[in-house]
């Protein structure tokens, strides 16, 4: 049973789970946080070839074409890899934040908007009035939960605690999550008023 005690662990083989744990131990990241982020990015498939239909985003953490090139590979090459092979590139991508990703939100921010890593939850990622980030705001306007023309770190990562919770229940290893930490208290997670989240599209690269 210990081999599957990992959020979303039943989606992976025993060897894949081991590799995730080894990578996360080296990066200083809670493995469940990494699994939740990959579940969210891949639509819970954990497929290394999954592709965003409106951008170049590909794979376990939705590598953009420019990001893949900067790392020394390509989205085409990444799409042809196995989970284990692509995990090497996931580790390479996260290496600059080694030891700094202490919350679920920060793990996700390293993927979505690295400038927000370590920032408070009210940090504004995108604002409609900001000419430099207006396109990013419009692409993700569905995340503006309170419709104030700004998307904060908390709003952008708002669905991740739920993804983590669902992943924990899948492995029969539920560990409630509160404000960036795993905790032994009731889950604090809220939906937008309309009860729905919109998909996130990072196509402004």
Report what the structure shows:
This protein has 205 residues and is mainly α. The protein is built from nine helices and four strands, in the order ααααααβαβααββ. It has a two-stranded antiparallel ribbon with strand order 1-2. A hairpin with a 2-residue loop joins β3 and β4. The longest helix is centred in the N-terminal third of the chain and has 14 residues, at 14-27. The protein is globular, with a radius of gyration of 16 Å. The N and C termini lie far apart (42 Å). Mean pLDDT is 84; it is low at 182-205.
Considering the chains and any ligands shown, give keywords for the structure.
single chain, 205 residues, mainly alpha, two-stranded antiparallel sheet, 9 helices, 5% strand
SSE topology:
Elements: H1 14-27, H2 31-41, H3 65-71, H4 75-79, H5 83-94, H6 104-112, E1 124-127, H7 134-139, E2 150-152, H8 153-156, H9 160-170, E3 177-178, E4 181-182
Quick gist of this model?
With 205 residues, the protein is mainly α. The protein has helices at residues 14-27, 31-41, 65-71, 75-79, 83-94, 104-112, 134-139, 153-156, 160-170, and strands at 124-127, 150-152, 177-178, 181-182. It is built from 9 helices and 4 strands.
């Amino acid at each position: 049973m210990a081999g599957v005690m990992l959020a979303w662990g039943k989606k992976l083989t025993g060897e894949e789970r081991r590799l995730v744990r080894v990578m996360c131990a080296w990066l200083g990241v809670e493995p469940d946080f990494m699994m939740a982020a990959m579940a969210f990015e891949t639509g819970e498939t954990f497929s290394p070839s999954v592709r965003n239909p409106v951008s170049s985003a590909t794979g376990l953490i939705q590598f953009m074409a420019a990001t893949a090139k900067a790392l020394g590979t390509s989205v085409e090459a990444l799409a042809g890899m196995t989970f284990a092979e692509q995990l090497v590139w996931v580790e390479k991508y996260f290496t600059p934040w080694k030891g700094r990703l202490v919350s679920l939100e920060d793990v996700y921010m390293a993927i979505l908007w690295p400038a927000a890593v370590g920032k408070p939850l009210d940090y504004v990622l995108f604002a409609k009035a900001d000419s430099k980030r207006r396109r990013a705001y419009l692409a993700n306007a569905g995340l503006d939960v309170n419709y104030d023309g700004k998307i904060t770190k908390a709003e952008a990562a708002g669905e991740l605690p739920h993804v983590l919770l669902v992943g924990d229940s899948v492995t029969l290893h539920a560990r409630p999550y509160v404000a960036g930490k795993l905790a032994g208290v009731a889950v604090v997670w809220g939906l937008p008023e309309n009860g729905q989240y919109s998909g996130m599209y990072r196509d402004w690269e």
